[in-house]
């Protein structure tokens, strides 16, 4: 067989990178204490680590202190103990970020783990959570992450999160919908929506995180309650706004 | 290897065994022969039928180069020098002719982890191509340093390892809540474990 000698690196508990990426798709947490981890993202671990559901007995303290999101509490567990914990998420790119007395909002389903030094709060934008405080967190993205500065408009599916800037607002390309033709489009949904009439608008100072793909998360693969939340509110949900299948189309459904 | 997702095999009259339908291109002269029952003879064929660790192999022989790939999954080459590789049949792409394949009873835990009761073994001297969803991470297990792996991320292992099915102490708290980390495979002993950065068949039946 040709192409021999692909000497794959063999890791053990000591040679694993500590709090760093093993490869672009998985991250090793040198656990000594507690981390919040999203359910089902652990792929392997060394050492003595216990996983407990949130809201169980002794963990109530931690939950009341750090986890302010009843909506997502079912999706999270706490890893306790000492050892090396490997995290990965469907082969997505995984990266860690440090936050220092900061705040960062991120798509809930893309957040894999965070230190209890951070407080998790539900964002007012559905499907997103905000981390406040100091600590490290691990997040996944489909493709590499790009950091951009406002003012910028981002496609809802490509948006991962944002830091230190005001909450975004929706932006709709209303020009496209003006006039008789636009009215016809709006009513019938025919005549071509480019699919890019709706964006998130960021202004002010801060950083916006984008992924290089518009496939955010397959709703079938994430727990039920995040599935709905994760979809950014498309124009379909908001009456009078331009998008497929149009108002008439909705009536016919 | 060409990239990490295509396996190129140069043949000079010898043969390789590969999973049916994974050939994507070849040049030179090649013959493809289906090997019923994974080329393990009648007994192996019956065993595979019975165990559900189904696997159709073909024997590729000739002269030239043959390229194999499977749904753009990452390909990992494992070199065996006499030891045995345990691998899920769905992750096996190709093996050298000199290697023996077989089935093995993995114990009852296989049924609960959704991997079936049996696993495929490859033993002998030569190279095995194993596919994984995302590049596999090789983790060493040694005495006093056990490793726990999510069943969905497990791909293969070699060496003298005891595979044990572990339920987390608080597993009851997970009941009715789908997959948590309540179920793990614990490996003890000496050997290597291959894990992939994806969890198959966990929440929504991926793959």
UniProtKB/TrEMBL annotation, chain A:
PANTHER family in the cross-refs: ALTERED INHERITANCE OF MITOCHONDRIA PROTEIN 24, MITOCHONDRIAL
Protein name as annotated: Ser or Arg-related nuclear matrix protein
Species of the source: Embleya hyalina
Compositionally biased spans, kind Low complexity: 239-253
Any one Pfam family match given in the protein's UniProt record, by short name: AIM24
Region Disordered: start-end pairs: 226-253
UniProtKB/TrEMBL annotation, chain B:
Source taxon at top rank: Bacteria
Pfam families per UniProt: AIM24
InterPro entries named in the record: AIM24, AIM24_sf, Trp_RNA-bd_attenuator-like_dom
SUPFAM superfamilies: TRAP-like
Name listed for the protein in its UniProt record: AIM24 family protein
